[in-house]
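Fold it.
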Amino acid sequence: MNADVKAYNDAQGKEDRTICNLLAKTILAALPDAENKVWHAHPVWFLEGNPIVGYSKLKDAVRLLFWSGQSFDEPGLVKEGTFKAAEKRYTAANQVDTTELTRWLKKSAEIQWDYKNLIKRKGKLERLK
């Protein structure tokens, strides 16, 4: 795990730290070739420079975000924002279904929208995979 991601996780309260560590462990296992770093103050994993998945501490939960998640056709994910992102929020580690999460992570590698070039394309998203 990237040292900055570890430091982010370690800075969380006990339950949130447990959630973050579980998410990171599962993401690292499912996406071994993904680069991971703290980006815009939150842990994010990238494939070929394109953001795929990340998480952040909110006031009342840890939010797991998939940049292309609306295209996964998964009922457990909720639409987030104006592009293709979808999220899941956790308040306890026992809410993290690692089988479900691993399925979503597999889809995150297979289904991608090009966020890397969003600014270059003036806000227009194109499907990569």
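The first strand starts at residue 35 and ends at 39.
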